[in-house]
Amino acid sequence: MNNMKKKKKSVNRYTVVIIVMFIIFAAITARLIYLQIFKYDDYTEKANTSSRRLVTEKAPRGKIYDSQGNLLATNKQVYTLTFTQTDTSSKSFYSTMKQVFKLLDDNKDSQQDTLNLKLDDKGEPYFDFNVSSDDSKRALEIRFKRDRGMHDDVKKVLFKDKQELTDGDESKIDDELLKISAKDTFYYMVKFYSMYDMLNPTSAEKEKYKKLSGKEITDMLLKHYSINDIRRYMLVKDAIKMQSFSGFKPVTIAANIKKDTAFIFYQKLNNMPGVDVSLEPMRYYPYGQYNLASGVIGYVASIDSTKKDRYEERGYDVSTDVIGKAGVESAFESILRGSTGGTTIKVDSQGRKTEELFDLEPSPGENVHLSIDKNIQYAAEKSLQERMNYVQTQINDPQMYKISKNFNTTRGAAVAIEAKTGRVLAMVSNPGYDANIFSEPGKLTPELSKQFFAPDYESFGKMLIAKYNLGKTVDELFPKDSNGNRQDKYDLYPKPFYNYATMGLIPPGSTFKPLISVAALEEGVVHPNDTLYGKKYFDTHPDILGSWAPADEHEYGIVDLKRALAVSCNFYYYEMAIRMYQKNGSNTAALDTLGRYAWQLGMGTDPNSKQKGSTGIEIGENFGQTYNYEYFKSQNLYYSKYEFVEAFSKGSYGSYNFVPLDIAAKDDDSDKLKATKQAIKDAITDVLKNSTSRSVKLDGFETKIKGLLNDLESNSKDFSDRIKASNNSNNKYSQKTVVNAIEQFIFDKNGAINTPAELVNAAIGQGVNNFSLVQLASYISTIANGGTRYKVHLVDEITDSTGKVMKQYKPEVLGKISIKPENLAAIKEGMSMVNNGTEEGTARAHFVGFPIKTAGKTGTATYKETVGNVHQEDYGRSDYSVYVSFAPVDDPQIVVAVVMYDGYQGNMGAPVARAIYETYFRDQIKQQYPNYQPMFDYTLNPPLEDVKDDNLK
């Protein structure tokens, strides 16, 4: 039938395939047109950007020279192994690093380790931040944890839904961060860096591992790797992370590798994606093995993370750059630092250079030329160490000291300056250090780091207690602070990074007597030829000093000023202090007579002036103060609170015994109790503050203090319980006794403040007189040259890399003091007798046979005055040995000052001065005194070879 439906045709499958393929190719073509035509510029830029890298080239730091052109600090080119993170290198990271570590180990080269999270010999993590200050350690630990994102986890717990955090909130986060142990931080970083990838997991395994804790991942890894191996990979991962803050740059795997090792790596680079070898400058100290002038030169190290922002603003790369950390390296950082260069390159997928696009040459830093003479410096350092060893091992004086042998003479300093310019010829701080330890990777071992920055006060204290039979506990010698960290309260531990020459403030002892001589002679209270009888006890002014009669070691008989200096007669100088006090009015203003002369000589400054005290030295210094009324009063007011608390907490003061007061501040005190304790202390200091004469006005004080004692009894359960216990033992509590004891305390303190007792003590260099060794050298220099005080300086000039002089430092006068010629001559003659006296002279034994006439003054300065039966030796301390000198006497050219902590006696440092003189005058001695036999075999013919630019290899 025609109307029957026609059978449908079946669709051809081939046609369908053609249509689908056409659609796919059309889409691909459209996409290609879009990418290559419409988005050509965008993607070209992206491709160029992703393949471009800036390879920085470190600029060498400027060099540091001594005055003779010898290199004290320079740079040497070293091979450095780096890793660049790319997509390709990331995929094979662990296999590549495995090869790298094996090659380093096989060739005995060390991986660079700047991670502050270390492992001890038992494999336990601990923090090591290379700083000694507890506050600095705290800040660095917080920064370390924040940089690695740990604060985000803490924030989620403490402030989950809070968007804007206050400073208080951030502080709470910091407190919580500090509670996270080093071990838990290690676990965190294992997870943070996805270190389960070390196991080459599948995708499914990865998802499983992501849900594990850091400890669980670590435990899993420890089945296949050691804890040290895990940390080796972590070092590189962490370096990459920290480097990322500064943009894309290679990270250092190992620095200063051997040349042979570098060539082996060159041959294998094709099999190590991301790894490369380059040459970089490394700071080098040619005389580092001798610790030569380490306190002056300083050292370089990486930038602390807490200072990151500050240095980034100044153009530093905080992840790779080093900065001066001490001494000249730090003080002249802006001069020594060079300008980093770099090359913009194109790289392939493995991070290797394919094309160089732009090159910027690095610019070296400028050079610093010091006034230090390396030969004089060496003589000073070696002789000081020898004398310290001598006192430690050879001195045995049981009649003078409870510690009669093996003194803790482990700290000392020496300074030599030109008398007529202030140029420093040598400056020693002992102990010193090899600065190469910090610039050469691998040299700062965990053991050295702990010794330098985290000393074991516990073990050291036990050693001292046993050695000297101190009868003290470690807690007494090295008390713990509120954070549980031990403090070196009595300055017992030798500190390599503490410059004892510029920072250590010491009592000058009898080396202060030339200054008193200037003051007494210029005030006219004595003539150079006037004599008096030098008794042992100074008991000639009971109308002024009452029953107090300070004692000398000997009775010297008839002395004039010259002999008083030669034999160091205390009686003479006690008398000079009283005479100046009487001449100037016998009042509080008269107590400043000594200060007015001392300030002109650079020994402190007038507290009523705005003048900042300084010797002018370019590196960090502490500047000490001479006794004067305002300063001594302020010191007494400050420390009297602590002395009051210590005495009255024990229930004993003077002849009074009473129920111990609960007067020390405690964290758990109620607000009322805190206020009461403070009010008692304030009541006492208010009386002292308002008193300006020997008599004390106590109008209304007794009533006030009784009321406060009643409040103390009411508010303090401890005090009320003590009173009850005392009453129950038939030793009735007497408030009147406590009041009398407090009033006696006030009378004693007021007497010390408003009478010349401390002036008398200051006249022999004791009491509050404390100065740096540089100050002592400067003041002796001022006297030696006739009264001109020069700025003490270490730097002669600055030059650029071509040798062109950029800046010169000429002698600079800071002040002048007028000294009559006859007075100056008498002082110089007396100081000459110290070194050259035929029978007397406290340092004469050390200058026998020396052909050039020298002058000097010894000082045996007490660390802590004996109180009752408590001696300085009970705390492991003994007298400072202080010695000052100049030469020649008739035309002073050089001044020397020496100190040894716990050094027995002042003359112990005199041989150090002689070693310096033998070196300084060696050409003159060889020419004029050819038969002279030196005391030291390293002075006339200095053993250190010169290291110049042209012979450094």
CATH architecture of the largest domain: 2-Layer Sandwich
Q: Report the CATH C-level class of the largest domain.
A: Alpha Beta
Helix content: 40-55%
Structural class: alpha+beta
Compute the number of helices. 36
Total separate domains = 5
| Main sheet attributes: strand count, strand direction, barrel closure | 7 strands, mixed
How far apart are the termini? 113 Å
What CATH calls the topology of the largest domain is: Beta-Lactamase
Mean pLDDT: 90
Number of strands: 25
Radius of gyration: 36 Å
Show unreliable segments: 3-8, 46-50
Strand composition percent: 5-15%
Shape: globular
Keywords:
953 residues, alpha+beta, Penicillin-binding protein 2a (Domain 2), Beta-Lactamase, 7-stranded mixed beta sheet, 5-stranded antiparallel beta sheet, 14% strand, disordered N terminus, peptidoglycan synthesis, transmembrane, transmembrane helix, penicillin binding, cell membrane
Write up this protein.
- The chain is an alpha+beta fold.
- Helix content is 42%, strand content 14%.
- A hairpin with a 6-residue loop joins strand 24 and strand 25 (894-900).
- Helix 22 crosses helix 26 (593-600), helix 27 (629-650) crosses helix 28 (671-690) and helix 27 (629-650) packs antiparallel against helix 31.
- The protein is globular, with a radius of gyration of 36 Å.
- The termini are far apart.
- GO terms for molecular function: penicillin binding; peptidoglycan L,D-transpeptidase activity.
- InterPro entries: Beta-lactam/transpept, Beta-lactam/transpept-like, PBP_dimer, PBP_dimer_sf, PCN-bd_Tpept.
